[in-house]
Amino acid sequence: MPRDRVVAAAWAELGPGVAALSNASGRPLARTVKLILDPLVLRPAQNPHLGGGRIEQADIAELRQRILDAAADLTATADWFAALKRARRAARITGGNPQDLYFQRCFELARTHGAPGADAGQVALEVVQEIRDATGDMTVAQLRRHMTDQADALTALLAAAWREVPSPEPGAPAPVEGFLDSCGEGDADGDAFDQLLEAAAGTRASAGLAVRGAARDHGLTDLPLPEPPRLGDNASKNRLPKPFDRSVFERLFAAFTSSFHRESMDSVPGLVRAEIARSALPWQLGEERSRLTVLLGREASGGLTGGPQPTAAHRRLGSRWEREAYVRRVLRLPGAASGVPEDLRSDVVTVRQAYLRRLWVRVHGRELRGERLEPHEVWDLLDGVLRSVIMDHRQRLKQSLTRETAGAA
Hints:
Layout: H1 3-12, H2 30-42, H3 57-69, H4 71-90, H5 98-113, H6 120-135, H7 140-149, H8 151-164, H9 177-184, H10 190-198, H11 201-205, H12 214-217, H13 248-256, H14 268-279, H15 288-300, H16 312-322, H17 325-332, H18 342-349, H19 351-369, H20 378-408
């Protein structure tokens, strides 16, 4: 049986006490599995029969029991996580992803303190301040200084990277429908995913970006053809260019200033060298899993713009998109009659480009954090990207209506 299904079934038995560690459908978050269940509860390194994509029938009961035996610790972990988030807000800490930073520490608190008690607020504040102090030594200033001081050497490294990497060989379109159907139904086919990896489907799909205008049509650049990035030494989080047009500094800056787990970083020189090498690779991503994920997102998002919806992933994304009232108005009413601002109408029509941009950013961020994407995580990622696009649209529509109301007054 697929491992994620066994884990989800056992997790559901824990009840609402672990909601802080769960996603909207009640399953454990990807980071819950990665940071808590696998290393601290199931321990597949010591129990290899409990790892892998599928669990043998004889081992299902053991996996379930290990999760149930940890119920008290997991419930206390969820309560400690809520306490640490409150302390984080009180201390006005904004750097890093709370799940990355606090999940394992919360489990440790659960084992040593049990459920949060009367002193939980003080304990939580001390913990978040300790973590902030431990992870705050790698800064944007260090990155900028390295980029400036080593500009000549890095420029040479960048030129060599773009000169030496061969173009991928194009091939027949990869048969991604089987995996997209399975992941959209909540039962990702790990074997199908592995076959696509072995066939380098993501890398082969990137060959089409060498066609003039193709990367621009994907929403990844404003240029007819991708060009080597500048090194750069400044950036604005609110005005970042499209992914392929970002400087090396901008690509790393976005990670330093968002949900980035600094404990997982390489040194600044290592980060910069890796980013330079990554920029010259297919899809400007370093790992085949990342490239395959972009290919899967590209195919699944085809149904957002009126294309066929042959798989469950296509249909679920399409259904989520078409439920939005502003989307229906744009698609059914001409121009201003929709009541949607012109710039947002344009983005609705070209939603696939915004989707692919956000997907690339998410996948790139996972590479920087060293997060290995497993087959059972793909759907949450694909669906989460669309939800992010929709939330951005809703916010822009709200701001537009607020401005109109203020102007009328």
